[in-house]
Amino acid sequence: MSMKHFSRVMMFGLAIAATGPALAQAGDAAKGKAVFARCAVCHSVDPGVKKLGPSLSGVFGRTSGTVPGFTYSPAMQKAKIRWDAKSLDGFLAKPSAAVPGSRMVFAGLPNPADRANLLAYLAGATKK
After folding, report:
1. Residues 55, 61, 63, CA angle at the centre, nearest 5°?
2. Whose CA is closest to 98, among 114, 111, 112, 80?
3. How far is CA 91 from CA 16, 61, 80, 86, 102, in A?
4. Domain coordinates of the chain in residue numbers?
C-alpha cells in the first residue's frame, strides 16, 4: 500500500471514529443537565447509585445490561449495545423501539437538540 493510499485510509477511519463523540460535543452540557432532570427520577450519574434504573456512571463504552448488581430485562441483556454517543442518541429517541421488551418505561426524547444536550452533559458527568 502506498503512503498516499495509507494516509487516505487513516483519515477516513478517523473521520468515522469521530462521528460518535461529535454528537455529544454538539450539545450544550448546561442545557443537558436540565434535560437530565427527567432521567434523574430513575438514574444517577454517581457510581454505584441504583434507583429504578442503573447508575449511568461510565456509561460511554459500556455494554448494555452489564452494571453489576442491577437486574435488567432479558431484552436489555440480549441487546449487547455498546453505548456511545450514536447508540445512546438512537436509544434516547425512543427506547421501546431501540430495545423492544426493555423495562424502561420512558417514552423518549424526540427532540434531537434535547438529546444532543443530554449527551453533552452525560459525556462529562458520567466519566469514571
Report:
1. 70
2. 80
3. 20, 15, 13, 9, 11
4. 29-126
Residue 118 DSSP one-character state: H
**Whole-model pTM?**
0.79
Low-confidence ranges of the chain (pLDDT < 70): 1-25
pLDDT of residue 64: 97
pLDDT recorded at residue 128 = 75
Q: What is the pLDDT of residue 25?
A: 56
The closest of 78, 41, 56, 30 to 126, measured between CA atoms, is 56
Burial track 64-87 (b if 16+ CB lie within 10 A, e otherwise): bbebeeeebeebbeebebebbbbb
* pLDDT at site 103: 93
Report pLDDT for 22. 47
107: how many CB neighbours lie within 10 A of its CB?
Answer: 9
Q: Superfamily assignment of 29-126 in CATH?
A: Cytochrome c-like domain (1.10.760.10)
